[in-house]
Please model this.
Amino acid sequence: MSEQGEVVLQVDHLSKQYKKGVYASRDVSFDVKKGEIFALIGPNGAGKTTTIRMIATLLKPTEGDAKVGGKSILTDPAGVREGLTYLPDEAGAYKNMKGRDYLRFMAEMYAHSKQQADGFVADAEKICGLGDRLNDKIGSYSRGMTRKLLLARTIMPRPLVAILDEPTSGLDIINALEIRRKIKALAAEGMSFLLSSHNMLEIEYVSDRVGIIAKGHLLELGKPQELIQKYEADNLEDVFELVVMKKDIKGW
Amino acid sequence: MNKFLSLLKKELREMLTAQTIGLLLFMLIMMYSMGGMMTKSSEEAQEQSGRITICDLDKTDFSESVIEFLKHPTADMTNDVNVFEPESDDYAAELKRLGVKSFVVLSQGFSDKITSGEQAEIIYVSRMTSLATMSNMNVGSETAVQLISAAVKSALYTQKVSEGALTEAEAVLIEAPVGVTEHTIVNDKSENVSQLILYSSLYSRSLFMPLVVYIMVLLGSQTMINAVSAEKIDKTLETLLSAPVSRLHIICAKMLAAAVIAILNASVYMIGMNNLTINITGELPDDIGENLKSLGLVFDLKTYLLIGVQMMLTMLIALSLAMILGAFAKDIKSSQTLLLPLMFITIIPFMASMFTDISGLPGMFKYLLYAIPFTHTFTATDCVLFGKTNEYIFGLIYQIIFLIICLAITVKIFTSDSIFTMTEHSVGLFKKKAAPAED
Model:
């Protein structure tokens, strides 16, 4: 992890209510510093994706706000989109496009000049490591190849914050490991990440800080090792179980 | 046996989807609606054929007896015969003054010709107001022409038989005692040509435009629904909407691309159909071509331009509606189901405009059809060729308003949470339990 300090993502009391009284995400607050890998962990339906979608300006929060590089998702969503990239869970790409064309297309969305776009594409080609397969249509890619391409697409504009929802879901051990290493290497270069996962062991390995989320509530926040010590657990999975059980007993 | 029944039940459950049931219902409703409209149209045509408007320029006992025969062809039959005095020899002005679609003129010397053993002339004047099939069938005084022939034939037969043997020339005359000269009026212009010949000449072309519109709407909508639903299902839409790009640009690019593909498809069909039509019907004979030109029934640049504006609006409305519907899709199957409402509102005006003049339909049917924005494009050819300016302008304004509303809804969906939260079940498009909200 690089020197951290400057907050690049500030989430303040973010809530999303779909129906009256039914919150997908409630009063969630945390921040992500420059070069930090922050992970939201929780089971399916915990509210991770809803929180992430609000930060990515795809959903409007019912309450609260979030700021990316000081720009508010409420008042300046276009400005927020300039500073972040988002890789949704199980996302696909345009199957009829060649890998290289897809990278070019996405680069043009973020770049302010052709030269900058060329630079983005060159970077992405290195990051994804797909070589000549970039000349093939995405429809012919394996799941792992598609995920690498999408990760490269997410990282290439060097955003303030890259949001990765379940970055390694459905990937084999080798591909997952490669992606984790890339995330760590990029964070060391100063890029910030907001990850979401229900794979606790992966998060324990890759993230600097975690937020445990369940039923829309952020229940615990801290460094993985600190939380393991606090709950006298063997690993983050045990911490999660203890946190959720404790809260369940309290009946929130 | 139980295993077989279980398999059969599973297959039926898989095949008898909401889409299949929707299609069946759609066909049923469409047939009923079309049936209703056709009944009304043919009732009207039937009523019109019993109403005869005639002008007697001969004014002899014989011509008067022919008119009497028209009023009571048989003891138990009475026709509504209206005899009028002409105010001018301008047929178009006379039709307008009388407020009828057609009339028959017994020419001066009608009786003399019959008595001297020559074929007498009657003039049949009709107004052509639409290219729809029913509007060009049973056009009123056609019945009168047949009845006049029958009346003259009957009188001649009685007279000649009472006189003794028939000569060969008289026998021929009895077979066809009356010759008809037809005049067709279009937009106050008159040409010495049969309405039926004009209609036959234009029939293939009249089919052509609605077919192109129909294909354009369906292909464009399908492309758009598939594009939006695929983006939603593959989550490429989330990627795109989280990128620093205007959402209006995303919508416009999608619509433009789908429109280009639809126009490309329509052009291919247009060229193919045109070629097919010419091969089947052959080029128009020169004299008919001249008649059509004089009556203004030609597809010139202005006509194409006016129809083109309507077609473009229809295309944009269809694409906009398809974008809205595509936003409801949660999988490929549901995206196909979502095409049904669009098919429904396209095929009904398409079929109706082919068979009947929608502007002449009774109130309820007419306004229901006019409420469908695509109707105005299907009737655009009729409006432009037959000078129905008010109808054209009303259609154009209605389509523009409809398009603005559709675009506003599309923009609203794509700039709000709805694009990610709504499914066809969440708004009860196809009744099922509402899907739970995503994580």
